[in-house]
Design goal:
Length: 132
Amino acid sequence: MSLTDPIADMLTRIRNANHNGATTVRIPFSKMKLEVANVLRREGYVNAVAQEGEGTERTLVLSMRYGPDGERVITKMDRVSKPGRRVYSNVTEIPRVRGGMGICILSTSKGILSDREARKQRVGGELLCKVG
């Protein structure tokens, strides 16, 4: 299966699992997806990130996070930069998502970072997605 935008596919799988109340979601492996998943874990949107399988059969397994009464932690996920239209931002123009209650994930020269980490390290980059 050939995908033109694997990050959008990953976000759609997470959105669908979140909407259905699934405890885990499996995503085809790539290094970039692993880094995006690690940002989601560091920021508290997913509980755990694991790899399964070997070689071309590797998958990422994300353990979804929900509130104490089953309410969703992730309310919205949007892809910002797309293959047809790349969106870049310097450190002073990184958007605040939901007034600072959400995060923006960026691809920077220092790796894949959340907006808070990018501001702290004073780097800008490509805006991959917004999570609220």
